[in-house]
Specification:
Blueprint lengths: L3 E5 L3 H12 L3 E5 L11 E4 L1 H9 L3 H7 L5 E6 L5 E6 L1 H8 L4 E4 H15 L4 E2 L4 E6 L4 E5 L4 E4 L1 E4 L6 H6 L6 E13 L12 E6 L2 E8 L4 E9 L14 H7 L5 H9 L6 E7 L11 E3 L14 H18 L3 H30 L4 H9 L4 H4 L1 H4 L10
Parallel strand pairs: 1-2, 1-11, 2-7, 4-13, 11-17
Antiparallel strand pairs: 3-6, 4-5, 8-9, 9-10, 12-15, 12-16, 13-14, 14-15
């Protein structure tokens, strides 16, 4: 099958999908609403199930150079630092699942994906195009933009994120329920931290009413801090909303001294907090000539680190479906059929992990981890999935 494919959104999922499609021989145009291409300053985790696709696109070595492969996943008590559980990560992960686990700065990852997509088609991305809606016929789909531009193609892919205009037209309003959690994020240059400090592992500090995740980025030059706290102070769903440093400091008062060091040595005017909302998975996200990908299809909470990973999987599976199906509609049915159950399971598992990370007492945490299987075995179904080779049914 050949044809023109329109992608709304030049985020991580949209760019990864564009490269998969272009590599497979499709003609693609990507429309991005922002006037400048870029990503927020935050960390992201890419496990084997998505790294297979990065290797397919020729990006594996480049990502490993700018990322960090954490040696272990370590769960600790929020105040004393008592270790509740540890399991090996980078070496074991690749041995078991055939590809690395790497932690990246989102902006670095986005730049690498954009460069790869443009290597296939230099004029691929068109900025300052906010999609407002689409119309479709038996023969084509037209994407309409706020600036008056109209783009006609054979398929429209909505990779336009949590507030997707494509999703709004296909699915309509979806109830969003506040989880009770606000997620802080902060980046700290490693040179500001004492030596020695936290080792190059993924550290999860768990406490009643919240948890904090810390890991390194940019080959160890930055430390990424994400602190999730239960709060009735509901704000926007936006990674760019700044709140006062003093509020961050007070939210984690009494937590481990390492966390105090991170908070103290971060830029006090660069403290961001996102209010986390939950949305139930949907069972259908396509029409005859339009479909969804990534957060626009299956928004998820960050407690399993699989949001971008699912989007990358989507792009690879959608490309395969378009390659083997006889029509656009058949391809979209094949794509959706092979993604809806898996993505729903990931969304639900992520929601469940919130309960695990926010147990009400220290004793409850010790009890929960006492007989807990190592996470790699527990999540084998998740990481062993290869979107390039999994059988499509």
């Amino acid at each position: 099958m050949t044809g023109k494919i329109i992608i709304a959104g030049a985020g991580l999922g949209g760019l990864a999908a564009a490269s998969c499609l272009l590599k497979a021989g499709f003609d693609v145009d990507v429309y991005e609403q922002a006037p400048v291409l870029g990503e927020v300053g935050a960390g992201i985790q890419i496990s084997a199930n998505a790294f297979h696709v990065m290797r397919h696109l020729g990006l594996g070595e480049e990502l490993l150079k700018v990322g960090v492969q954490p040696g272990a996943y370590v769960f600790r008590l929020h105040d004393t630092g008592e270790e509740l559980q540890r399991f090996n990560l980078s070496a074991d992960h690749e041995a078991k699942h055939g590809a690395p686990y790497v932690q990246l700065h989102r902006a670095d990852f986005h730049d690498i994906l954009a460069a790869r997509a443009r290597s296939f088609k230099p004029d691929l991305i068109r900025l300052d195009h906010r999609l407002t809606g689409f119309i479709e016929t038996a023969d084509y789909v037209e994407a309409r933009f706020a600036n008056g531009h109209v783009a006609r193609g054979d398929l429209l892919i909505g990779a336009d994120g949590l507030k997707s205009a494509v999703r709004q037209q296909i699915v309509g309003e979806t109830p969003a329920t506040y989880t009770g959690d606000g997620a802080w994020r902060l980046l700290v240059p490693a040179e500001r931290l004492p030596k020695p400090f936290l080792p190059p592992v993924m550290s999860v500090f768990m406490g009643p009413g919240g948890h904090a995740v810390c890991y390194y980025l940019r080959a160890g030059a930055l430390l990424n801090f994400v602190g999730i706290i239960e709060t009735g102070d509901v704000r926007e769903e936006s990674w760019t909303l700044k709140l006062p440093w003093e509020k961050l400091k007070s939210d984690f008062a009494g937590w481990h001294p390492d966390l105090q060091t991170i908070i103290d040595r971060g830029d006090h005017d660069q403290c961001f907090r996102w209010s986390l909302h939950n949305r139930a998975p949907i069972r259908s996200w396509s029409t005859r000539r339009a479909t969804l990908l990534g957060d626009s299809a299956h928004p998820t909470l960050p407690y399993l680190a699989q949001g971008a990973v699912m989007a990358i999987e989507d792009g690879a599976v959608l490309t395969r479906a378009l390659t083997i199906a006889g029509s656009i509609s058949d391809a979209l049915s094949l794509y959706e059929r092979n993604r809806v159950d898996r993505t729903a399971r990931i969304v639900e598992q992520s929601t469940f992990n919130r309960k695990l990370f926010h147990l009400p007492s220290v004793q409850a945490m010790r009890d929960a981890f006492k007989n807990r299987d190592e996470g790699e075995d527990r999540n084998a179904w998740l990481y062993s999935y290869n979107p390039l080779t999994v059988e499509l049914i």
